[in-house]
Amino acid sequence: MRRRPQGLFQPYGTTREDRYPELFQSIRQVLADTPQTRLLSFGCSTGEEVFSLARYFRQAHIRGVDIDAGRIGRCRARWQREGREPRLSFVCAGDVALEMTASYDLVMAMAVFRHGALGESPTDCSAWIRFADFDRVLGDLARVLKPGGLLVIRHANFRLGDTGAAGLFECLHGEAAQASPIYGRDDRLLPGVPGDDGIYRKRPAPLASSNMTR
Predict the structure, then answer these.
(1) In which domain, by residue range, is 154 found?
(2) Given the DSSP bridges, would you call strands 198-202 and 145-154 parallel, antiparallel or unpaired?
(3) pLDDT, average across residues 160-182
(4) At 49, which CATH number?
(5) What does the pLDDT average to over 117-134?
(6) Nearest to 183 by CA among 110, 112, 132, 109
(7) How many CB atoms lie within 10 A of CB 198?
């Protein structure tokens, strides 16, 4: 039996080309497309999200990260077939621990922080995914995002608002309530509680207070 990778959330790599066109267009309207712009697709699966973003952002550098080595292999194979565009890159990892602090303008985590087995709404999710892991990874995604940068989360079984990083963000656009069951900090089901998927902006770093005396 294949060992479950440490840090895995969603085991299914379901994706398709240009899966979120309205979302991509709205992000493109507020985010500059320059050679200095850096985008991160966290949980990129077989790369369709990265290649789709590359059509909306013609100059930005875009990195796809996925925990599954086979999926990353398929990303790189397509990348080679389509001309090895140097602004695109793919990394096999379950987190962003090796990424530099404040290095991305956009982080997308689409249908990542969830598990298909939770569709039946079991009362406890810890056998499949744990809030503590979500909290840790979300905190690191916040770390690599620049102040003013955007974080997009969809189809999560946890709420960003419950994490330690929640205070770093303001919600620009909340998504309509999804059918996904929501679990709390204790990994217990929160019946009837909606998620808080959406587009978030990382707040600017607070200015250091001055202790200067006249």
Answers:
(1) 37-202
(2) antiparallel
(3) 91
(4) 3.40.50.150
(5) 95
(6) 132
(7) 17
